[in-house]
Amino acid sequence: MPQTPASDTVTANGTTNGAVAGATANGAGRVPITGDSSGGDPRGTDIIIQTDGLSKVYRPPFARVGKTALENLTIDVRRGEIFGLVGPNGSGKTTTLKLLLGLIKPTSGSITIFGRGPQNVAVKKRIGFLPDGPYFYDHLNSYEVLDFYGRLFGYDKAERNRRTAELLDTVGLNPADRKRVIRTYSKGMVQRVGLAQALINDPELLFLDEPTTGLDPIGARSMKDAILQVRDSGKTVLLCSHLLADVQAICDRVAILSEGKLVKFGTVRDLVGPSQSFEVFAAGLDSKVLQNAAQQGYSYEDQNGNSIFHATSSEQLDDILTFIRNSNGRTLDVKGHSETLEDVFVRSVRSDGR
Amino acid sequence: MSASPAVMDTVRETTGAPVPADRDERIEIPAKWRIGQMVVIGLIVLLAIYYNTVGWHSAAGESGAEDSRTIFDQVGFFVLAGLTLLTTPTAGTIALTTFYEAVRRRWMTALLAFGLVMLALSTFFTWMAQGEEEKFLRDFGVGFIIIMTLLMSIFLGVALVPPEIERRTIFTILSKPVNRAEFLIGKFLGLCMTLLVNLIIMAAMFLITYAIFRIRREGFGDAMRIDPNPGAGHPGLGFDLLNLSRALLLHYGQLTIMAALALMLSLIVTNITAIVFCFVAYFGGQASSYWEHLSGESAEEGHKAEHLKGPMQGMVKVVYFMLPRLDRFDVRQRLVNDIPIGFNYIWKAFGSGLIYVAVLLTIAYLVFSDREF
User: Fold this and answer.
1) A54: which of A109, B162, B207, B245 fits an S-S bond (Cβ 3.0–4.6 Å)?
2) Within-domain flag for A103
3) Record: contact A101-B174, CB cut-off 8 A
4) A31 and chain B: CB distance < 8 Å anywhere?
């Protein structure tokens, strides 16, 4: 098992207060959480999920050696954030989710959710879960499905009716479709019912497994909006996905898993880093000025009579902007280019030996 | 934060005794439900008293033989009471949904419709048994219902939990405040409700068809007339209908056993294997009195000397103890000979059947509680 270099351990929010927030890969250089590690993070510091050295080995009956699905995972999830769990297929995302939901038991390590074990009924009353490709009793209609889940929480009929109607409105299921049985629904409609059942108990913590997979762009967008709305209402979301653009767009912090090991962990901003290259769109610069720019070592190109300068650092960007201003040109636009989460993800996974 | 969940799950009261932290946070059980549970437990206590004082084989009852009480049955009463306490409103919700889901299946509707049509048309087949039309109708009706509902119990029983795992509906259910025992009990009770409704519908169709046939043939007055001379071969229609209803009620006992067996086996082996085992157990169980005689367990004097000896006897004993005593539910001889089916008979069959079901569900829970999805 390769040890992850210390530099790969990303602090949760890039703080300078010296407290390492939350997690290390493979337990190397693990620092206990002490005090307020949130720094400037607007999200809460109240930790509601904590895993400590969590491992899972699947061992078939009578087999001597099992398959390690998850190894020594130590992460924390804080109240009010959207936490992304990403990784390629077989990286241990779903295993982690199942462990957190109490559907499987860890081989070693511990999990606490709201300070209790994951199988605790009191914990289950406070969580919601949307599985990947949810399937419901398909001979029931959406009212009956939500009524069923409401009953499991012990709500009375009036309460169930109220919550069911509200949630079906919230997830945007057409009234005409609500009395049709689930088996006649499209994937997007089933996903909406799935989100509604996950929210039936107004959970403090929501687990979402691939919530946008298979949805059309409009459906995916409304799902992302719904997730942000859930976060804005003060709830915590743990999102499991391999659609990295979605994760980058909505998550506050991300853990990247590869082959059952944690390879990156931190805020999205810290993982992708600041912009590393820039494009400056300028107008009103004649050929003499551009020749001068070339002499100063600035890289540029012409496009429809305008000039596009390329800066490879923020210092060079400052110089180019000053140059344009001094040459009586006009700056039309400045675009920064940074790594995407996908770049970070691919690099992390490859450096982990894949 | 590194405290183990077990530690986190408990808080200490001022007395210092650890108590579960969520004891008062569980889904509250309404008072009406609690009263229902107490009533059922009261019935179990009465059954246990009956068993320990009168016995399954009472002198007033069927065999007239000595009773053979076992420690297994005594433990079984406690298991039954425990399962009753675990039957919470949550289990009831799962049962209701299982029932709705089952009765809306197209193949279930088709099977039921086929059964109803066959029972309604049964009078047209009486030409095959000239002179014994009534006997033919009774044999055909009871036999047909037994076969159809037996198929339903086994096929629905093995398809009760595995599809929930395959389709991952179980993920959304077990992530709600539902424990695995409630889930299993709920699924089983839902299947029992489905079987009961199907049995009632088919039985109603059969009894109505039978009654109409006899009334049209004999006239209402003659059909209802009971010959006071025993063995005259003309019990009244009322007697017939009551006896047939009791026979079908007893058959329901068999169905619940087969459903529990199918459920338990489906958690351990593949569906096909479970179905095969169920049929083997059904036919083996029908002959359990023969296994009893062979193993030397029979209390009847006439069979004392006929049983096997040595290791063979031990093997047969194991088979006998494992098989469901389905012959206790079999009253075909009584139906043929127009002998009334007494409540003593029904008590005996249902008492031992319930204990068998409780044991099967407990085994199913032990397997299911450690299952990883």
Assistant:
1) A109
2) yes
3) yes
4) no
A98 touches chain B (CB under 8 A): yes
Long-range contacts of A285-290 (CB under 8 A, 24+ apart): A285/A324, A285/A327, A285/A329, A289/A327, A289/A329
Number of compact structural domains in chain A? 2
> How far is the C-alpha of A112 from the C-alpha of A34, rounded, in Å?
17
User: Inter-chain contact B173–A131, Cβ cutoff 8 Å?
Assistant: no
Among A121, A113, A95, A134, which residue's Cα sits nearest to residue A204?
A113
Is residue B13 assigned to a domain?
no
ipTM over 0.85 threshold:
no
Domain residues for the domain of A296 are 277-337
Three-state secondary structure readout of B285-300: HHCHHHHHHHHCCCCC
Q: Does A35 reach chain B within 8 Å, measured CB to CB?
A: no
Residue A283: which CATH number? Answer: 3.30.70.1150
For the entire predicted model, the pTM comes to: 0.79
* Residue pLDDT tens, chain A, 354 long: 333 333 333 333 333 233 333 343 343 333 333 333 343 444 556 899 999 999 999 888 777 788 899 999 999 999 999 999 988 888 889 899 999 998 899 999 999 999 888 888 889 999 999 988 778 887 889 999 999 999 999 898 999 999 999 999 888 888 888 889 888 998 888 888 999 999 999 999 999 998 887 778 888 888 888 888 888 888 999 999 888 888 888 899 999 898 889 988 888 887 777 667 888 999 888 888 888 888 888 888 888 878 899 888 888 888 899 999 888 888 998 887 777 777 777 777 777 655
Strand segments, DSSP code E, in A20-137 are 47-58, 67-73, 76-78, 82-86, 108-113, 127-130
Domain CATH number, residue A23? 3.40.50.300
